[in-house]
Amino acid sequence: MKLFPWLIFGGASGVGRALVKKGLQQERPMIALVRNSRQAEELRNLGLTVIAGDALDPQSVRTACLAAGPHARIISTLGSAEADYTGNRLIIDTAEQCDLRHMLLVTSIGCGDSWPSLSARARQVFGQAVREKSLAESWLQSSRLNGCILRPGGLRDGAATGQSIRVQGQAHGVITREDVADHITQLVDDEAAYGQIYAVIDPGLTMAVKP
Q1: Distances (CA, A) of 56 to 21, 22, 95, 187
Q2: Which end of the chain has the smaller Cβ count within 10 Å, N or C?
Q3: Which CB contacts under 8 angstroms, 24+ apart, belong to 109-114?
Q4: What CA–CA distance (Å, rounded) separates 114 from 153?
Q5: pLDDT tens readout for residues 19-58
Q6: What stretch of H or E contains 58?
Q7: Per its UniProt record, what Pfam families does this chain match (predicted)?
Q8: What is the pairing mode between strands 102-106 and 174-176?
């Protein structure tokens, strides 16, 4: 299977940083847009091409897309309140303008048609973020990009267990960030994954810590 370059938004921490480790193991070409100067320098030292800028800044996003080139696979793990929809929308729109064609968007269980899987408590605490992520999903699905959507359960730190599963349909549970990165790595080069929505959980884990 051909290893396409990765254009990563959100690679400085969390799932995105775990994904960078997977890419380094594969000797994958990677381009990342990073706002924090210290984190940007860390990624440069690892061998990534780093664009200094913000995912909410049109020029920064355009520079990153042009640097990656049309064959790159975009991976967005953005998770801030401002970027969940606004940032991802800008990425999608800019990618279209720059002739990129593939994007894997990481959101969360509860988005889109999985909203009924959230408890009343979860809707109260995380509902606004989930709705913003749902808007990003819809923007990707209605764009010209080939989109793959990955909805992790509650995220937790720790080593990958290797026991997590992908589900198409309703799901509820938690998963390590490392395992989410593994699923991204498995899906991103697979043409059959685009146009699909997957939930990812680890049935052996029970302690939810973050959506």
Answers
A1: 25, 26, 14, 26
A2: N
A3: 109/151, 109/152, 109/153, 109/171, 109/172, 109/173, 109/199, 109/201, 109/211, 110/151, 110/211, 111/137, 111/149, 111/151, 112/137, 112/138, 112/149, 112/197, 114/151, 114/170, 114/171, 114/199
A4: 11
A5: 999 999 999 999 999 999 999 999 999 999 999 999 999 9
A6: helix 58-68
A7: NAD_binding_10
A8: unpaired
Helix (H, G, I), strand (E, B) or coil at 161: coil
* Sign of the Cα pseudo-torsion (4, 5, 7, 12, in order): positive
Domain boundaries, the chain: 6-201
Domain 6-201 has CATH 3.40.50.720: yes
The model's pTM is 0.93
Q: Using CA atoms in the order 92, 95, 96, 101, what is the torsion angle rounded to 10 degrees?
A: -100
Contact of 45 with 17, CB cutoff 8 Å: no
| Rounded distance between C-alpha atoms, residue 31 and residue 68, angstroms | 6
pLDDT per residue as tens digits for the range 57-82? 999 999 999 999 999 999 999 988 78
Q: What is the pLDDT of residues 131-141, one digit of tens each?
A: 899 999 999 99
